[in-house]
Amino acid sequence: MPDTTSYAPSERTVPTRARERASYDRALVHAILDEGYVCHLGFVRDGAPVVLPTLYGRVGDRLYVHGSTGSRPLLMAGRSDPGLAVCLTVTHVDGLVLARSAFHHSINYRSVVVHGTAYEVVDEEERRTALDALVDHVVPGRSYDSRPANAKELAATAVIRLDLEEVSAKVRTGGPNDDPEDVSLPHWTGVVPLTRGYGAPVPASDLDPAVALPDYLTTL
Amino acid sequence: MPDTTSYAPSERTVPTRARERASYDRALVHAILDEGYVCHLGFVRDGAPVVLPTLYGRVGDRLYVHGSTGSRPLLMAGRSDPGLAVCLTVTHVDGLVLARSAFHHSINYRSVVVHGTAYEVVDEEERRTALDALVDHVVPGRSYDSRPANAKELAATAVIRLDLEEVSAKVRTGGPNDDPEDVSLPHWTGVVPLTRGYGAPVPASDLDPAVALPDYLTTL
Questions:
Q1: What one-character-per-residue DSSP string does A130-145 give?
Q2: Which UniProt keywords apply (chains A, B) (predicted)?
C-alpha cells in the first residue's frame, strides 16, 4: 500500500541546508496551502524566470490556478506539450527572530514548494470544480452564495492544474540560535510574533442595506 | 536629466492585462518592498523554474539577498557569468473581494516584480552594507543593537545583488466590479480587509531578565 501520509522526497525537494526544517507530511502541506491566499507561481519565459502572485485553490492533491485565457502562463500551459514546467510556492511569515548576533537573525515561517508540470484543464466538470475551489479558497462556502460562472465567463477563463507530487514543506519555529559565547552580550533577544487578522467587512457601495452579513463572514 | 521618480517600463514589465493596475512609480515600488519581510526569488535550474522564499534588504535602488555560501541560487549567481537571471517578487494581500458573481471574486493586493540579473557581491564594504540592510529590514535599527558578523560568519555568507531597473508594481484596491445585471442578486458583496499586526515580543529563554525591551520594538 502506498504511503498516504507523506509525499515522497525527490532530489529537488530535499534541501541542501537545514534539512531538519523540511517535511513531506501531507497534512502539514495541505494546512499551509489552505491558510494562504496568494501563491507565487514561477515559470520560464524566453529562458528567464518569471514569478507572479496569483490565487489558487486545492482539491485533494490537485492545485488549480486560473486566469484570463489571454494571460501568459495560462497560454503557455495550454500551448506547451507536455504542459508547462512550474514551481508554485506559498509562504507564511510567523515571527521576527532577533538574535544577539546579526548573523543569527532570522524569520519564523512556514512554506510549501511544489515542483511539477501544469496542464490546462479542459474537462468541463473539472473546470467547474476548480473554479468553485478557487472561490471557496478565498472564503470557505462562498461558491454556494454567489452567481456561478456563465458560458461567456467560462469561455474567458483558463484553468491549469498542478498535481501535488513533488512537494515539500519547510518550517522554522522557536527562538534564536545564538552561539554560546554570545549569551552574555547585552542585546535583547527573542521573537516578535506576526499576526494576521480580518478587519470589519466593508459592504459595496451599491449593496442593498437589507442584505445581511452572512454567517460565514462573522466567523472568519 | 533622467526621470528619477519612475522606472522605465519594459516589454517584461508591461502586463498583458489589467494595465491600469501597473505602476512604475519609484516611491510606490520602494514602499511595497520595504513593507515586506520575505520575497519570492525565482531562478532557472536545469531548465526548470525554482521559487524560494527568502529575506531581502534594500539600499536605494539595490536589493540584496543573502545565504549560505553553499545554497543553490547563491552558488549559481557566483558561478554564472554574467550572473544569474532572476525574478524577485514581493506581495501583500490587503483584502478579500467578494463579488455577487463567482467570476468577479478577487483579492486586493500590492505587489512588486523585479526582473534582472543577480551578481555575487565581493566588495567587503558593500557586503557589510548589505548585511546591515538585511538585519535592518527585519527590524529598523537592529543592526546597531546586535553583534556584527565576524570573519568566520562573513566567510560563510554569500550576498547577491539585484538592481532595481526592470521593475513594476501592481495594485488592486477598492470594491468588487460586478456586472450591472448582477446588482440585484441577493448575495452580500464587499471587501473583507486583511490586517497584519505584531504580538507581544517573546524573550529568549536564556535572556537576562535585566535586559529591557528596546524602544524600537515597542513602536513596531
A1: HHHHHHHHHSTTGGGG
A2: Oxidoreductase
The 3-class secondary structure across A101-127, one letter per residue, is EHHHCEEEEEEEEEEEEEEECCCHHHH
Give A 152-181 residues with CB within 8 A of chain B.
153, 157, 175-176, 178
Distance CA A113, CA B94 (A): 23
Q: Which residues on B lie below 8 Å from A92 (Cβ)?
A: none
Number of CB pairs, chain A paired with chain B, less than 8 A apart? 289
ipTM: 0.95
Which has the closest alpha carbon to A163: A73, A70, A63?
A63
Helix (H) or strand (E) holding B111: strand B106-120
Is residue A212 exposed (0-12), middle (13-18) or buried (19+ Cβ within 10 Å)? exposed
Neighbouring CB atoms inside 10 A of A202's CB total 14
Report CA-CA distances (Å) from A188 to A34, A101, B61: 35, 11, 31
Domains of chain A: 19-177+209-218 (2.30.110.10)
Grid cell locating A85:
514546467
Tell me: the pLDDT tens digits for A34-55?
Answer: 999 999 999 999 999 999 999 9
